[in-house]
Design brief:
Blueprint: H1 9-35, H2 40-68, H3 70-90, H4 94-121, H5 128-148, H6 159-177, H7 193-199, H8 201-227, H9 232-260, H10 262-280
Helix pairs in contact: 1-5, 1-6, 2-3, 2-4, 2-8, 3-4, 3-6, 5-9, 7-8, 8-9, 9-10
Length: 281
């Protein structure tokens, strides 16, 4: 019997390998930057550069996907992303790392856009919540696994950067070899924020505030945890706990959104997140 996930198994495997590498890199970079005597400002700019790259990637990726299709775009973005961890190890200089993080963000914007638009096209109104919940659960779980890989080799060495590059490269294989037909590339269209707000103002606001919270947490969370007295391994566990908690919540939240509606479930989850955040202060 087929399941909603059967048509996108190869895509989910690629996403899992890719995000495992990204989880490892998210722990490795701040630690290595500290060991290389980067200032807190340098590390903060490095985090901001990644999100700037995401923004730029959101603007340029649709045209690339529309021109060459989902599979080729995924392979190209993964190939470019593979270069960045290797260059981090070769050139341990703050300005170079800022540029590399921006490039990584751009590539991941394209990768995320390709993955999520493919998932959206492969699902329907009845099962979309469950499909996206399964993807997000996988995303968060393998990110946690990637974070724990940071203990395999010393942070000062080249090995962990090489491992990230290996994972990024392998991520392109399942998608490139899948027999599943990729979605028809969308026609290029310009970004119309006013129109988007008019279509779903609640969704736009939710995305805006979620992005602000995520950006602050992933940029400042490790620094905050370290300042609170946590060691490196404890900081990794702190971040992993946050990711794992999100993963465990995805399936019930997705199922509830299919049955109860998106808005009430989003409101309840937002309230729960706010209360949890207050507990950390």
């Amino acid at each position: 019997m087929s399941t909603p996930l059967q048509p996108v198994v190869a895509l989910l495997v690629s996403a899992a390998v890719l995000l495992m590498g990204n989880g490892l890199l998210s722990v490795l970079l701040p630690v290595r930057a500290g060991l290389d005597a980067f200032s807190q400002l340098d590390i903060g700019i490095m985090g901001s550069a990644y999100f700037l790259g995401l923004v730029i990637g959101c603007l340029v990726s649709p045209g690339i996907i529309a021109r060459v299709g989902h599979i080729r775009a995924f392979a190209a973005f993964a190939a470019v992303a593979t270069v960045t961890p290797l260059c981090h190890a070769i050139f341990p200089l703050p300005p170079v790392w800022w540029l590399l993080r921006a490039l990584t963000g751009l590539c991941f914007a394209g990768l995320f856009m390709g993955i999520e638009s493919w998932l959206n096209a492969a699902s329907d109104r009845e099962n979309r919540g469950r499909v996206l919940a399964a993807y997000t659960m996988l995303n968060l779980t393998v990110t946690t696994v990637g974070m724990q890989l940071s203990g395999l080799f010393p942070a000062r060495g080249f090995e962990l950067f090489s491992l990230v590059a290996v994972l990024y490269s392998l991520a392109a294989v399942p998608v490139s070899l899948t027999r599943t037909v990729a979605p028809t590339p969308p026609r290029r269209s310009r970004l119309r924020l006013v129109w988007l707000i008019g279509v779903s103002p609640a969704a736009v606001l939710a995305c805006l505030f979620t992005g602000m919270v995520n950006g602050a947490f992933w940029t400042l969370g490790p620094t905050y945890a370290h300042a609170a007295g946590l060691g490196f391994e404890e900081v990794a566990l702190f971040l992993s706990a946050a990711v794992l908690g999100g993963a465990l919540a995805q399936w019930p939240v997705g199922l509830s959104s299919d049955r109860l509606g998106r808005r009430p479930v989003a409101a309840l989850v937002s309230a729960a997140a706010a209360l949890a955040g207050l507990g950390l202060v």
